[in-house]
Amino acid sequence: MRVRNLAIAASVAALAGAGLTLPLAGTASAASTLKDDYNGDGYRDLAIGTPGSNSVTVTFGSASGVSASRSVTVTQNTAGVPGVTEAEDEFGENVTSGDTDGDGYADLIVGAPGEKVEGKPTGSVTVIKGGKNAFTTGGHVLNAPADTAGRFGEATAWTDLDYDGSPQLAVISGDNWWFYSGAEGRAYGLEVDFIPEGAHLDGMVAGNFKYKDGVGFVLYGERADGGAYTAHMNGGVGDYGYESELIAEGGDPTATRDAATAGDVNGDGYDDLVTGNSRDGQGGSVTVRFGGDDKFGAPVTYDQASTGVPGADEADDGFGASVAVGDVTGDGLPDLAVGAPGEEVGTVGGTGSVTLLKSTAGTFTSGKAWHQETAGVPGVAEAGDSFGASVRLKDINKNGKADLATGATGEDIGTTVDAGAVWVLRGTSTGLTSSYAASFNGTDFGLGGASFGTTLR
């Protein structure tokens, strides 16, 4: 199904197939302080990872939001980007950002956990330099250290580990964790390895969970027996892993192998942990743990049977498959977006939806569901679209309110199966609005049936 209300010039689509769709110069004379402003124009940009095509598409923010006509698509075949695109690389499986070289422009940090490097475990992380003409001045690649079974780059984070004013890069593989002293510096592993034998890590989120002046990490994935695994670690440079805590595992419904995010949803100065468990109960759930002085609060779980949460708790909804926090209303408290890519809309199964739950002092009992049959949202709900497979909340048009980006990785465009598509809905003081909604899909960038929108950053 082709998304409605989207007109893309043929020349843009043609350039997409070549790598760089539109070299867009920033208009600002001074560098931006935003973590994800790649061209320095003062607006946050939206990065879309499509590991099925080994690519990352960046749509540049503006006062009018984002559109496919203001974008750059980067692959390992792009001039200046290290490496060569190979089918198994999964370039774009993980995407983050940060100013790694101190020039004031955000750089694109891309994980490719399937990358094969002779003599090394699988996986790589590529840093591609931002600038006024973003991604045209090259980058560098980090390969897997020896002490791992592979899939280096499964997740990354750019954060100030030791609060000295200079952020560092943290990376996980399938079974280990490292940080780098500089963008191209030495890799330092865990001082105390607390990760269970045979565990496979899928994700990581950083935050000030237990100390307002110190960063902790939540790692999640699966144990060797297939049960979920979720753990937290504190520490400083040289002793990471020394203070670790098992948060939940196995069949505990508050454990996750799917998704996690962090934000201060109750306004007390500590980051709170939000996890999704799409397998919990019938239709899935999300769990909130408040951060606090040296401890997490008791888990509070929401599903589609909870008061104020729209919908019904039905088998295979996948509620919690993706989660994001951001202040949509501008009231100072981050709200919560939850993807349910298996949600039935009307009588159409697996079309998917996203629920926005507003924060009221850290509780979430007021929400609204959004999908392709919601008035003003481009598209038509069809079986297997998986709308809500990915979600991100960020203020793209700089109005002080976070906008929702969501992907539908199963979206068919014409005869192209699973082309994938992304929608952006604007934030307002009353919540999300479908007015001025933007949408674009994988064929607009020449990516074919590659599940565009797998990763949003």
> How would you write the strand order of the largest sheet?
3-2-1-28
- Note poorly predicted spans: 1-30
**Gross morphology:** globular
Order of helices and strands: HEEEEEEEEEEEEEEEEEEEEEEEEEEEE
Mean pLDDT across all amino acids: 91
Q: Biggest sheet, open or closed, and with what strands and sense?
A: 4 strands, antiparallel
Count all strands and give the number. 28
Distance between the termini: 25 Å
Helix/strand/pairing category: mainly beta
What would you note in describing this structure?
The protein is mainly beta and 457 residues long. It contains 1 helix and 28 strands. It has one helix spanning 10-16, and strands at 46-50, 55-59, 71-74, 94-98, 107-112, 124-128, 139-143, 155-159, 168-172, 177-180, 187-189, 200-211, 214-222, 228-234, 243-250, 259-263, 272-277, 285-289, 300-302, 322-326, 335-340, 353-357, 367-370, 387-394, 403-408, 421-428, 431-441, 455-456. The chain has a 4-stranded antiparallel beta sheet with strand order 3-2-1-28, with no helix packed on it. Strands 4-5-6-7 form a 4-stranded antiparallel beta sheet, with no helix packed on it. The chain is globular.
